[in-house]
Design a protein that fits this description.
heterodimer; A: about 110 residues; mainly alpha; flat; B: about 700 residues; alpha+beta; five-stranded antiparallel beta sheet; about 40% helix; about 20% strand; Dolichyl-diphosphooligosaccharide--protein glycosyltransferase subunit 2 (chain B); endoplasmic reticulum (chain B)
Chain lengths: ~110, ~700
Amino acid sequence: MGSTTADARALVTALRSAYAATPIKLKIIDLYVVYALSTVLVQVVYMSLVGSFPFNAFLSGILSCIGSAVLAVCLRMQVNKENKEFKDLPPERAFADFVLCNLVLHLVIMNFLG
Amino acid sequence: MASTASGASRLPLAWLRLLLLGWLFAVVSQTTCASNGLQPLSDADREAVAGYFTADADGFYGSLQETYHALRALEILEQSNVESQKICDSLVGLVQAPHDSVEDAFHVVRIAEVLQCPHGAEVAKVIVPSLQAAVEKAKSLLELHYSVATIAIIKGWSSKSASFNVALSGVFSSLKELAGPDGKWHYTKSSSESSAKAAGLYTFFSFPTTAIAYHFKNPSVRGLQIGHIKTAAIKLFDNLESHDQGVLYFQESKDDASSGGGGTLEATWAVLRGSAALAAVLPAKLKVKVEKVFGIAKFLLTPGLALNATEAFYQLDSLSVLEEYRPAVPVSVQTSSILSLSSNDNLEVAVTTVLGKPVSQVKVTLVSAHCIGADAPPVWSSQNLNYVENSGKYVFHFLSATTDLGKYKLSLEVCSVKSEGDSSYTSGGPVKSDITVISAIGISDVQLAVLDSNTGISDFSAVLEYGKDENITLSANHLQKLLLLLKLTSPSGSPFNPQQVFLKLVHESHVEHLYLVKSSAKGFQLTLDFLGLVEKLQYLSGTYNVVLIVGDMTMENSFVWTLASLDLDLPAAPEGKPLPPEAPLEITARVGSKPEIAHIFWQPEKRPPTLLSNIFLSLTLLPLIGFFIGLGYLGANIKLFPTTGLPGAAAVGFHGAVASILVLYFLFWLKLDLFTTLKSAWILGLGTLPPGHFILSYLADSSAKQKTA
């Protein structure tokens, strides 16, 4: 019992120190993802309280946040210097893609919102 | 009339009731029908026409002419409530006053003649001097007519006959001038168109004129050719206008209108009077075709013909002329329409003049009598009818023991009994009529029984006698049958098949069911199997009246006979919709208003309370605030934001463009539609592209430079 908590504590500390080494840009993107997902949570709690009418509004709200989160994760992957896969992709290009995709997503969301 | 309806089906009640009523009515009302299209003046018309003439305080009926019309009309109608004494007394006073025209004298003289006033000589004494002057002055047909007609009437009252001769010679020469070359006459020498009325008037007085001339042995009369007048008179009848159904009349011409109108009635009257006057004195008969005379008679007997007093006079005077018309007297022939075997009726034929007086100087022959519908030879042919003095009718013993019931077509012929000096009578051709022979039908062997459905054994049976009121009660349930038997015989003893034989069951709630009783060799029979009829009777148990209905056109005693009272026990109606008993048709129930429909509309969804929604809206914004706080905590900054020059402008432009797209999305959510948004987004996107591309490539270049440096 004691070892598991001690192990858990050790794990968390190791993660924290490793995370501190990440570049600020990536931390900003992570923060953005956390923001999006927390908004989703609030909406789901609301829906569970009052019911899902109107359903389209609920879906568009949820999908907007999740979509933004997904696009942010894609941006993080492309911007991360340690990621060998996107070595040749300039980060500005990735950002431009991110902006465009967000705009398209939000157009669809706005249409579905009603 | 359906006599072959199939099955014991329920028949509509309304038309049955109507039919039965119709038959009963036809049998009960023994109306005579006119069979040659000519009906004498009806009582309704007589009354209407007499009503046109109302006397003034002094006994006169308006002007002199109107008074004459009224007196003559009332004389024809045989009404004697005229104040003849008063009128006669005032006539002398009227005549003494100076006159402008001979017309007044003419009317006065005519009134005196109709009323047979005793003051004839006094009137004549006063009139004669002015008359001579008037005769010399007369130039038009009408003036001549008045003067000469007056002379003709008063010649018997005055002894100064010799002085007429001189006056008359002047008349005849004027007459000659007015006679046209083709047999037609004119009003005056100058008028060009001839008219039937002028022609009639001419003949009306021409012969009395000639008769006077003969009486006075006037030499100038020989100039007038009687033959010429006669041919001309016959030519008159060529002017007849025809209408449908054989009605003929004389049409007036323009000249007639100027002499006082009167129309077709006056023209017809004038021609009839004229031709009658001529025919009365001619040695040989005036040959006018009988169809023409008949057609004129039809015209004069048109119901409601006269609309005022003058027209009434013309109609009545014309009819009185026709009663003794020399060429031919039209007669109306009417036969009885229904002959009853049980009362052994005779066929009666009434032959009357147009005013309703019976005619006895004709021979009526029954040419043939056929039974309608059968191809058999005629029942009677060439039989003479006998005149019965008391009733004024011609009778014939039509019925015999072997006469069949039904409709017969008769053809009659009416001929004059030829004798010198008598008028010849015409019926306008052979007379066709229909008669129906009816009789009382015997009803016998009426039996009503209740049988068991399975075994056929009768549980109850009764023999009923027609005419006796026996209150019989039967009872039955759905496992039994009702049996009705009856026999109908005609007077000759053979079985009779009437057009309708029905059995009706009437429930105490007035619901009725009708069944056809079929005939067979043994008589009429009906079996009602209640097991099969339970549903049709709508499961209504209770007391039913059993009613027998028998009717036919030739049956004198068609009847509706309540045979018995039936207590019917039927099983109860099954669960589910109870069939409502079909009560007599209630019109209002069908077309009245229906119950109001309460519509249930889609209820809107329940929305959460506004406060809750607002709380969560603020909760949604919390993560955003948390994001900015986190950014600050991480040390994120915008120090590298280019501020000067083109990169700065590009950066601002890029951010501005993206912001504008987001604003567009916001407007799209609020009120725009997709197409407008897409159009604008496309334009704004194009606007975002250059600055975005520039700034990002600038940043990429600058970071690449930093790496290499």
